[in-house]
């Protein structure tokens, strides 16, 4: 086999379809978020405004987080020294897991190197813990959940997105004595819509199923203490296993699950993705714990309120211009484009001509024909920056002669 030719063919296909992904050289500087420095291909530098970051609340720059990380770095050094089983458990890891357990109203929590690994490792391990487990998965679940569900032997059922009636049909068709788990998300990040948590919990009670809720795009953002949509809706006690990230609203790095002490202990003891992975550096764990603790306070609620306000303002102004936004009431603002080439061109022009950075979202992240620009306003985006974005989008939509329409479902 000509391996180089095969690689050329695979990469060439992405170029032909207009969905080849390009990394830009971007440097965040402490205290300046959402501004950053872009190094252009010719080596010159430009100041830009980041509009597609997942550091939703700017906590990656917050003094409380940075101070905690400096303290831990000075006290312990850089790395953790190994896996949690060997030498990678410290007071910082324990403090972080205690904060997470408290955040979700659970007995325990378990920290992983990413939310992707937490999903993959936990869902695949549950098949070992509960032989014959049937997993019911929303069709729009994240790739990490899909990988975990597929791994190993066991039945899976895919229900139509947020379709509780279809989920009921699938549950009714299976052996009532078989162990069951329903895996879904609180916020689906590409459309920004919410999962029907209460209705799914009702079905779980009726059919004796465990509930597994991915709150990756909601932790820190919703609820009086930042515990996610389940906390906002008073449903913490109805979820058996939470999955979340430390790398978005909390502004640091890593992922976790929160559940009963027995559940976390079993996953800790059986999941290869946990057992054989070096633990988070203590400084990262310290920064994440500080971020979580801060966002539980009234000051954290002020950040959440300002972020939600900025999201509503941006949606209102884009909708007023006839932009095809996808508005499901969350903090995420997707603008439908529907063509990968056009989506990439709009992204490039926003960056080069207006100093606005937003990555195109193309297949396979979203289905073909639903390509979009996905804006994530933060509490530190000023009215002036919102105004600049709206005017740039208006100018480009007119220049490219794109359709203006009502909201996109």
Automatic annotation (TrEMBL):
Entry's EC annotation: 2.3.1.37
A biological-process GO annotation: protoporphyrinogen IX biosynthetic process
Keywords recorded for this protein, A-Z: Acyltransferase, Heme biosynthesis, Pyridoxal phosphate, Transferase
Segments crossing the lipid bilayer: none
Record GO terms (molecular function): 5-aminolevulinate synthase activity; pyridoxal phosphate binding
CDD domains, A to Z: KBL_like
Pathway(s) annotated for this protein in UniProt: Porphyrin-containing compound metabolism; protoporphyrin-IX biosynthesis; 5-aminolevulinate from glycine: step 1/1
Origin superkingdom: Bacteria
Cofactor: pyridoxal 5'-phosphate
Recorded catalytic activity of this chain's protein: succinyl-CoA + glycine + H(+) = 5-aminolevulinate + CO2 + CoA
Family: Belongs to the class-II pyridoxal-phosphate-dependent aminotransferase family.
Self-association state and partner proteins as the record states: Homodimer.
Name of the featured protein: 5-aminolevulinate synthase
């Amino acid at each position: 086999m000509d391996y180089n030719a095969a690689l050329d063919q695979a990469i060439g296909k992405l170029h032909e379809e207009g969905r080849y992904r390009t990394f830009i050289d971007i440097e965040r500087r402490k205290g300046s978020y959402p501004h950053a420095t872009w190094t252009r291909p010719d080596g010159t530098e430009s100041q830009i405004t980041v509009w597609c970051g997942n550091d939703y609340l700017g906590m990656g720059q917050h003094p409380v987080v940075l101070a905690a990380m400096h303290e831990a770095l000075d006290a312990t050094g850089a790395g953790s020294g190994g896996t949690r089983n060997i030498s990678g458990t410290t007071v910082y890891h324990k403090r972080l897991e205690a904060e997470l357990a408290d955040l979700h109203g659970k007995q325990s929590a378990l920290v992983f190197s990413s939310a992707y690994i937490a999903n993959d490792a936990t869902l695949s391990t549950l098949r070992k813990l509960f032989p014959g487990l049937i997993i019911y998965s929303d069709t729009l679940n994240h790739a990490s959940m899909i990988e975990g569900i597929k791994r190993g032997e066991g039945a899976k059922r895919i229900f139509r997105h947020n379709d509780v009636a279809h989920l009921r049909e699938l549950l009714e068709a299976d052996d009532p004595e078989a162990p069951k788990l329903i895996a879904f998300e609180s916020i689906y990040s590409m459309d920004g819509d919410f999962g029907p948590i209460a209705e799914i919990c009702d079905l779980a009670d009726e059919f004796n199923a465990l509930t597994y809720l991915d709150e990756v795009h909601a932790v820190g953002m919703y609820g009086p203490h930042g515990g996610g949509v389940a906390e906002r809706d008073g449903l913490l006690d109805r979820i058996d296993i939470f999955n979340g990230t430390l790398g978005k609203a909390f502004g640091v790095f890593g992922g976790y699950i929160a559940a009963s002490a027995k559940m976390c202990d079993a996953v800790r003891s059986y999941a290869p993705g946990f057992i054989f992975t070096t633990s988070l550096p203590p400084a990262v764990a310290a920064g994440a714990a500080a971020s979580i603790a801060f966002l539980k306070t009234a000051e954290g609620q002020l950040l959440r309120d300002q972020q939600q306000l900025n999201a509503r303002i941006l949606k209102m102004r884009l909708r007023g211009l006839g932009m095809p936004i996808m508005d499901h009431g969350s903090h995420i603002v997707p603008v439908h484009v529907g063509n990968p080439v056009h989506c990439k061109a709009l992204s490039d022009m926003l960056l080069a001509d207006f100093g606005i950075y937003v990555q195109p979202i193309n297949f396979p992240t979203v289905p073909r024909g639903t390509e979009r620009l996905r804006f994530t306003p933060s509490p530190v985006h000023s009215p002036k920056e919102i105004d600049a974005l709206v005017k740039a989008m208006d100018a480009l939509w007119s220049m490219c002669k794109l359709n203006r329409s009502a909201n996109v479902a």
